[in-house]
Structures are given as structure tokens and as C-alpha cells.
Design goal:
It is built from 15 helices and 22 strands. By secondary structure, the chain is of the alpha+beta class. The strands form six sheets. It has an eight-stranded mixed barrel with strand order 10-11-12-17-15-14-13-18. The two termini are 30 Å apart.
Length: 451
């Protein structure tokens, strides 16, 4: 537990949080002594002091206001990833109006067990954060943290981690799911390893962490997990693929959605936009490369067989779903590093663990909508978010004033911060950012960022 908590008296003195906010039990007897450095503890938890208020880095990044009002969006994912298995956490979240995703198992690379300290730190961060946003007693939260920590201890042995599914929108008018958060890098991991553990692909991790080496991140470096998304402007039914962000959404219902990082078609082989359906599901597919692909490989000295049998060398992976445009598949891969990048010949690649799961959920006949939306705008409560996943050409060709539809920008009671809109376009991080809101709500004015 080293580094997780400091002496309660010091914690109160350094943060200004009243001792009675923790309940009579204080920190449940967990005490590291009087000499623990508050800055180190806050860093460990992913917290910072801002204008005398203890806040999380993710709060700053997402524009989550520092107030006594529960920030539902901020706690949703973090509870879902680490605490939903604990009944007390579910009850607590229900009491403050937070929605919790259900859970499923995600296979992870062998290096991921080294992330356990960072994952535990996220739970500690959540504990303090829930206190800040709700004023609840710590004794109502610690049992859930303990249970979650016990669950995390099994990661090393099983190579399995928990991933959230699905997101449940509190309102049919909401368009934003998830929340960003930080983990600590281990020098033995790549950003690909960390991203895959959280269901994120190459481009997403690179965009969100421009100052972190993708292949050899500095030991202990802060790695941003950009696990927040504006839903595409498309029917909330079946599967929706946005090629611009390399992300697939599975709508169980209009207010219940799961999301997956995918690889898409590269330049010249773009994944075609349009509306399709799943017409065939294939377990253990064979691959019959078309003549054009065989010629392309032959030019590089790679002679492909007429038919590649099912197995570990098959680029389609273990599962495939054919679209009504029969030249295109949603399938697994034997090269998971390509997930989250535009590297295919038009098909949609998924992590092996994701396609295996989705294959079991999707019936034939499911609608598939493919869109190309580099800029997405959406509401979460009274906050207006903008997300950018544009190419360099799209950035250069897009005017700031065109990014927010007139139907929103000129709507009565809506204010847009056009400087923030420009910053989102220019930085192109792929992370939804608050750029405005409804006048009657003061919460969206907290647009302060840490970088």
C-alpha cells in the first residue's frame, strides 16, 4: 500500500479538505506517518491542487467542474473499469446518479501485469475524487476499493483484465461517453501494450501522448488514456464505424453502446462509407487474396498462396463477419499492432479478443453504418464537446466557424468558445473537449486545462 495514503492530518492540512469529510474512521487506520510528501501522493493518485481545490488531471483535461455536484461523466468509466464488481460501489454510484458499465473479460499482453500499481493508483484517485465530488464518507468507498484491488491481484496469474461494456447514456440527448484518465508507464511496456489493455489503438495513443515515446516510454511517465468519445452522427442502431477515428460502436439500444478500436483501409483502399448489413459469420475463416493483392505482394517478393488456410498465419484472424458489400469483412488479425491504424485493403480489423466477443453478440442481418466524420460535436448534459480526428489536409481545409453547426451555435441560450474550437482543430488530439454550453448552466465555464 506504500505511497497510496499519507497521514490524515497532513492530508487535511495540505489539501484543505475537512477531516470530517472522511468520517469518524478517518483513513480506516491506513497511515504512512507524518513525513509523506503531499506532492508525491497527489502525483501517485493523478491529482493536482488547483486554486486551493484538490482535482484530478482528467478533470482539467475534460473540463469537469470543481464543485460539490457529482461529475457523472468523470466517475463513470473509472468505476466501471475497477469497481463495478463490488456491490457497494454499484449502490454508491446509484445513490449519486452515476451510471456503471457492465463488465467483460479482456485478454491482455503478458507485460500488462506490471501496470497493477498504476491501476491501483487509479482506484485511489477515484476514492478521493468521489469524496471531492460528493462529500460522502470514505468508509462508504474503501470496501469497494479493497475488493477491486483483490481483483486486480489476479491479473498477473491469468493475463486477464476487466474492460467496461456497455456505456449507458443517462439521457437520450447525450452524445458523449467515457472519460480520460492517466496511468504510469513501465519501461518494459510500449504504448501499444498500454493502449490495447484499455481497448485503444495506435493512432489514438499517439495523438493523445505526443510527448511520450510509442516504443520505449520513460519509466513512470504519465500516459493519457483517451477513453472518451463523442458518438458519431449516425443512427444509433447496430454497428456504426467512423473511419476517421478508426473506431466501431455497437448500439445494443439507442442509449446503450459498446465501442472498439479498429484498423481501417489505407489510402487508395479506403473502407467504403454507406449502409450495409452483416450477411455471414465465419469462424476460422480462410483467406482467398484477390489478384490485385497477390500482385502487390509479389512485387515485394512475397508470394501469397491462392488460399491461406485458417490458423495463426491467416491475416483474417479467427473470426470474420461479411458485409452485404461482400468484398468487405469485419475480422480479427494476426497483427494486432495494426489495430487503430489505416493499414488494411479496406476491411475492418479488430483486436483478437474484441472480434471474438463481438462475433458472439452480433446476429446476421445486423445493420452496419460506415461514416467518415473527422469532426464530431455532441452534448453531455449542458456541456458542448468537440472531437477532432482529422488528416493534415482536412485540418488545413476546415474553417473554425464550420466546426460547430449553425443549428447549435445560433441556438438560443448556447454560448460557444471559438478560441477553444480553434485549439481543438489545431491540436487534433482525438480527445473530446468542452467548447461551450448552455447559458443557464455555469458548469461548462470551467475550461481550464493543464496543457
Amino acid at each position: 500500500m506504500g505511497g497510496a495514503f499519507m497521514h490524515l492530518t497532513n492530508f487535511v492540512q495540505c489539501t484543505g479538505i475537512e477531516q470530517n469529510a472522511f468520517g469518524q474512521g478517518g483513513l480506516a487506520g491506513i497511515d504512512m506517518g507524518d513525513n509523506t510528501d503531499i506532492a508525491n501522493v497527489l502525483e501517485f493518485m493523478g491529482m493536482i491542487c488547483h486554486n486551493g481545490t484538490l482535482r484530478s488531471k482528467a478533470d482539467h483535461l475534460s473540463g469537469c467542474p470543481a464543485s460539490s455536484r457529482p461529475c457523472k461523466a468523470q466517475i463513470k468509466l473509472e468505476i466501471g473499469r475497477g469497481m463495478a464488481a463490488a456491490p457497494i460501489a454499484a449502490n454508491f454510484a446509484a445513490n449519486i446518479g452515476a451510471s456503471i458499465p457492465a463488465m467483460r473479460l479482456r485478454k491482455i499482453p503478458s507485460q500488462i501485469p506490471t501496470m497493477i500499481p498504476s491501476l491501483f493508483a487509479s482506484l485511489m484517485h477515484l476514492t478521493v475524487q468521489l469524496l471531492i465530488h460528493t462529500g460522502q464518507r470514505l468508509t462508504a468507498i474503501l470496501p469497494a476499493v479493497a475488493l477491486a484491488a483483490i481483483g486486480l491481484s489476479g491479473i498477473g496469474a491469468s493475463g486477464i483484465a476487466l474492460a467496461s461494456e456497455p456505456y449507458r447514456l443517462a439521457s437520450s440527448d447525450d452524445d458523449v461517453i467515457g472519460t480520460p484518465f492517466y496511468v504510469k508507464a513501465d519501461a518494459r511496456q510500449t504504448l501499444l501494450d498500454i493502449g490495447r489493455h484499455h481497448g485503444l489503438g495506435f493512432d489514438e495513443m499517439e495523438q493523445a501522448n505526443p510527448n511520450v515515446d510509442m516504443w520505449v516510454p520513460k519509466d513512470g511517465a504519465d500516459v493519457l488514456i483517451p477513453a472518451r468519445h463523442v458518438l458519431p452522427d449516425a443512427p444509433r442502431q447496430g454497428l456504426v464505424l467512423n473511419t476517421a477515428e478508426k473506431r466501431l460502436y455497437y448500439f445494443r439500444s439507442p442509449q446503450e453502446v459498446e465501442t472498439f478500436s479498429v484498423g481501417t483501409g489505407r489510402e487508395g483502399w479506403e473502407t467504403p462509407v454507406g449502409q450495409y448489413s452483416i450477411v455471414e459469420k465465419i469462424k476460422g475463416p480462410t483467406w482467398t487474396p484477390p489478384a490485385s493483392i497477390r500482385a502487390e505482394h509479389a512485387a515485394k517478393g512475397d508470394i501469397l498462396p491462392a488460399v491461406v488456410p485458417a490458423g495463426p498465419d491467416n491475416p483474417l484472424g479467427a473470426f470474420a463477419m461479411r458485409l452485404s458489400n461482400r468484398s468487405y469483412l469485419i475480422h480479427g488479425t494476426n497483427k494486432p499492432w495494426g489495430v487503430g491504424m489505416p493499414v488494411s485493403h479496406g476491411c475492418t480489423r479488430m483486436f483478437p479478443e474484441d472480434i471474438e466477443y463481438l462475433f458472439s453478440q452480433i446476429p446476421t442481418g445486423t445493420q452496419v453504418t460506415i461514416v467518415d466524420q473527422p469532426y464530431k460535436v455532441g452534448w453531455l448534459g449542458d456541456q458542448l464537446f468537440l472531437e477532432a480526428n482529422a488528416t493534415e489536409k482536412q485540418q488545413a481545409d476546415t474553417r473554425v466557424e464550420d466546426l460547430i453547426p449553425e443549428s447549435i451555435a445560433k441556438a438560443p441560450g448556447v454560448l460557444v468558445n471559438w478560441d477553444e474550437v480553434k485549439q481543438v482543430r489545431d491540436e487534433n488530439t482525438g480527445l473530446p473537449t468542452v467548447v461551450g454550453g448552455r447559458q443557464e448552466s455555469a458548469s461548462w465555464h470551467h475550461l481550464d486545462m493543464i496543457f
